[in-house]
Amino acid sequence: MSLIPMLSRVLVAAVVAVGLVGAASLAEDTAVAPVPVPTDAEAAEAGTDREGKLWPMMQIVTFENGPCESANGDHGVCFSQKECEANGGTASGTCANGYGVCCVLTVTCDGTISINGSVFQSPGFPAAYNTFGMCMVTLNPPSGTCQILLDFINFELAPPLEGDCTNDTFVVMGANQGSMIPTLCGTNTGQHLYIDVDNSQGPFKLVATLSSLSFQRHWKVKVTFLDEFDPCLAPNRCLQYFKETMGTITSFNFAPPTATTSREMLNMQTYSICFAYIKGFCDIGISFSRLDLGNVNQVCDTDYVAVGAEKFCGDTTSLSVTANATGPITILVVSDDDNSNLEEGFSLSYTMMSC
To answer: Which residues form the CUB domain (predicted)?
Structure first.
């Protein structure tokens, strides 16, 4: 997940018999068990005498700072104990065969994120946050970053009003010029965004702006920086990217309605959903379990979902289509500035078909 893979190195002590001259001192963070003085027989067997001593020999263990799961199930990064402390993280569980710790890196309002796998979360998470105003973090991508991946582990802001994010907003700043990154609100847990930044100098920021409306807000967004060689990199201009052979995709704010939330399509959306190429798979079968968007007379003009060149709109709970693998397969989502009809959006499942 890192750019030029970031590595941690720890020193592990192994006991060997050496002379007094040339013994190396131990690193500050190396733990060594007390060394016993050998008997004459032990010394002879080891090839030395009692004038010599047993000294620890250093072995450097190197491991990648990759993603890990903490003891309590949170997302973390595998670091040495000292690196985790130096980066302000919290160690929770081990990784790298016990040589590292799973370091949970959380940042909240007015903080800066420069390490892969860090999380931007609301103050006091998972408790509700109801402070009026702006909560913003600055992203400091490593050199060579092409994309920024945002994974919405948890996302609950005030719902839209007729499709407009009138109360709360979540905005991404710093994307390539011409990128159409949607403003988000409502419920978006489980969603993700790929942000192209290869032609941008920033500044890069994630901004949650909260209204005075009383609402149980909380969010937790994982940040990953991707370079051009990263296998997780999405095709350019794909806001969402799916790499599994089957899965479920929904529009933003498509969640079961509650007493305080609504399932409602957000206005002013124009974005592409893309699928990875997987060997042995060609066409993709797409089944809508819900499509509530645009004109019910099937004239799809300013609100629709397009699979390839074919547009779909209307109000249905059953619609199936096959996307042919004559080239890259994409789904285009478009909504205009009016959702006075409180259209819900869409939910679909997809299955990649064997060639």
So the answer is: 109-228, 238-353
